[in-house]
Amino acid sequence: MNKNVILSCAVTGAGETTEKSSHVPISPKEIADSAIKAAKAGATIAHIHVRDPKTGKLSHDISLFQEVVERIREADTDVIINITAGGGGDWVPSDEDPTKGGEGTDIQTPEERHEPVGLLLPEICTLDCGSVNFGDQIYISLVHGLEDKHN
After folding, report:
1. Could you tell me the pTM of the whole model?
2. Are 142 and 90 in contact, with CB atoms under 8 Å apart?
3. CA dihedral sign of residues 99, 59, 21, 19
4. CA distances from 34 to 7, 107, 147 (A)
5. Predicted confidence band at 149 (pLDDT cuts at 50, 70, 90)?
6. First CA to last CA distance, the chain
7. Residue 100 needs a FRET pair 20 to 30 A away by CA distance; which of 2, 29, 76, 127 works?
8. Are 62 and 20 contacting, i.e. CB atoms less than 8 angstroms apart?
9. Rounded CA gap, 122 and 138, in Å?
């Protein structure tokens, strides 16, 4: 029986974690430094989400992912980089009309979700294969259907 342990560390967590703790890293440097520190403490995988440095809110900005990944790769660690591909799937029903997305809804096309992965080529990435109730929101894993979103 294999007793090896793989420890994955999402240093920012998913969702709006900066509202829950002042210790959540926000800037790309803070996120990378936290991932490197976790790796040196024994984490095998650094699961990467990024934040808007000005607001601390979730971000999908590829340049933020790129800075985090570059900083981790330049460090003296062999941590496996795992860029999330699960962002942009948050549906928060509107209080007035639950058939419409309310505040906190963040939906992206599959192509938008996977863009940082294709650009930065992490060792692994997450792929959410289904939808799930997640607290007061629903995580929606779209596979198609938003092709005309920007038209």
Report:
1. 0.84
2. no
3. negative
4. 15, 27, 36
5. very low
6. 54
7. 127
8. no
9. 27
Cα 151 to Cα 9, 86, 101, 147: the distances in Å are 38, 23, 19, 9
Residue with tokens 């496996």: 80
pLDDT of residue 148: 46
Cβ-contact 125, 85 below 8 angstroms: yes
Alpha-carbon span 82 to 10, nearest angstrom = 9
Radius of gyration of the chain (CA): 16
Pick among 3.60.150.10, 3.20.20.70, 3.60.21.10, 3.10.580.10: CATH of 8-88+108-128: 3.20.20.70
Q: What is the pLDDT of residue 10?
A: 92
- Residue 75 sits at φ, ψ, to 5 deg, of -80, 165
Question: Residue 50 pairs with which residues in a beta bridge?
Answer: 59
Inter-residue contact 63 to 28 (CB < 8 Å): no
Closest CA to 148 of 109, 115, 113: 109
Dihedral sign of CA atoms 85, 43, 38, 16 in order:
positive
> Is residue 72 over pLDDT 60?
yes
Backbone angles phi, psi at 26, to 5 degrees: -120, -55
